[in-house]
Amino acid sequence: MRIVMATVVALALAGHAAPAATAHQPTTDGIWRMDGYGTVLLIRNGTFQEYQTTAVSCLKGDSARRTGPGTYTTSDGTVLTVRTPGGRDRGSMRVDGSVGDRNLRRIPELPDACIRPGAKGPLAAFDVFWQSFEENYPFFAAKGIDWHAVRDQYRPEAHAKTTRDELFAMFSEMVKPLHDAHVAVQDGDRVFAQVRPGTVLPTQELDTKVKKFIVAHDLKDARNLQDFANGRITYADLPGGQGYVRISGFGGYAGDGAPYAAQSAELDRALDTVLSQERTQRLRGLVIDLRINGGGSDALGIHIAERLTDTPYLAYSKRARNDPADPTRHTRPQPAYVTPAQGPRYTGPVAVLTGGSTVSAGETFTQALMDRPGKTVRIGQPTQGVFSDVMLRKLPNGMSAWLPNEEFLTRSGRTFDGTGIPPHLTEPVFTEEEFDEKRDSAFNRALNVLRNHRHHELTQGTTS
């Protein structure tokens, strides 16, 4: 749970901002409603306050203080940037490490519900919990869930004397059928969350076990084995002229709590060594292993993709639910592009290893490589199937709900929520049989594909 928890916390504010406003631009002070996201922002006297709204509630969310022109920093060090490119009454926001921004519209005053005290008992908590999903969750139809029937079943069980334990259990049962790794119920240190059936949570324990296995068996004849970015990235030169890079997450590179700028700088230091001028010229293929990846920053994934192309291309587009009453209405899709990085770049064949423990930003990075120019093949098992930034919604009784509200679209408008991104070539991934027989079928398949440069294997079944 620790890796997924870290991902959720890191992404809970994701998407609140973009480059800093300059002095001549209209002031960002005032009250703003965000397109989608059920959010109103109050910016005044150097302070930033989020209000989380539904049709039945308004609760204070995150707060931040101004730390520079148009920039605000939360208590946990998250940097938000606000700008007003559309004039006085239009704005946008982004959080460092997120991809895309959110459109803002100035409104004259806070909603009435944000001013008057709201109910705080178990019934109020139930109603806000249910309504938060009703207005923001995009995938009820795809998962075959009648959320109104869920309310009809559980609402009569809630009453003024319902305990926190009972409420926690009730909320957990309500969302359990979603099997969504970006959905969770939190009460203090207690969290209910789950992964897609048949998949395994990418815990630190599993990551350590798998890394030890890979070093002992896959990399036993490798050269230049080295860890980078606080152990989250491993590189080795393989005997056949291929390279191997393992990425266990898109964060924590500069230590827990370090700002995005420090994470990005640490990643650059790793990539400058891994993809040096000398190495990019001699590599015959590159294996990118994402099979145990707990996610993190989508922007860091884009940053790596920029080292793997000479040609700009669309990574994906993002959109969010934008009508509390109509799940088919969305914000305008925002494109995210991969633009070639300065300096050495590797543009040869790539084999990407994925599995059910490839989660969140591990999946958006996988998606960002789907239309990469050149030979790119996915090997292993489908990814987890959760792409959205995570909304953290506070409840009146102090509990919290986590849920997604976005979709990541391919060039043709396809999404992979729920099912995950499928591999081109299917192989078992870290099964008990593979461990027992000291075999890594997906890794071996990747080496064979790269060595043979089989064009039909690299392109057969490509999904875009």
Global mean pLDDT: 91
> Care to count the β-strands?
22
What is the straight-line distance between the termini? 31 Å
- Extract low-pLDDT stretches: 1-25, 454-464
Observed structural traits:
7-stranded mixed sheet; alpha+beta; 27% helix
How is this structure best described in words?
This protein is an alpha+beta fold and 464 residues long. 27% of the residues lie in helices and 26% in strands. It is built from 14 helices and 22 strands. Strand 5 (71-74) and strand 6 (79-83) form a beta hairpin. Helix 10 (298-305) runs parallel beside helix 11 (361-368). The radius of gyration is 23 Å and the shape is globular. Mean pLDDT is 91; it is low at 1-25 and 454-464.
How are the secondary structure elements laid out?
Blueprint: H1 2-11, E1 30-34, E2 39-44, E3 47-54, E4 57-68, E5 71-74, E6 79-83, E7 90-95, E8 102-107, H2 112-115, H3 122-136, H4 140-143, H5 147-154, H6 164-175, E9 184-187, E10 190-193, H7 204-217, E11 223-228, E12 233-237, E13 242-247, H8 260-274, H9 277-282, E14 285-289, H10 298-305, E15 313-320, E16 334-338, E17 350-354, H11 361-368, E18 376-380, E19 390-394, E20 400-404, E21 406-409, E22 425-426, H12 432-436, H13 441-452, H14 455-459
Parallel strand pairs: 13-14, 14-17, 17-18, 18-22
Antiparallel strand pairs: 1-2, 1-8, 2-3, 3-4, 4-5, 5-6, 6-7, 7-8, 9-10, 9-20, 11-12, 12-13, 15-16, 15-21, 19-20
Helix pairs in contact: 10-11
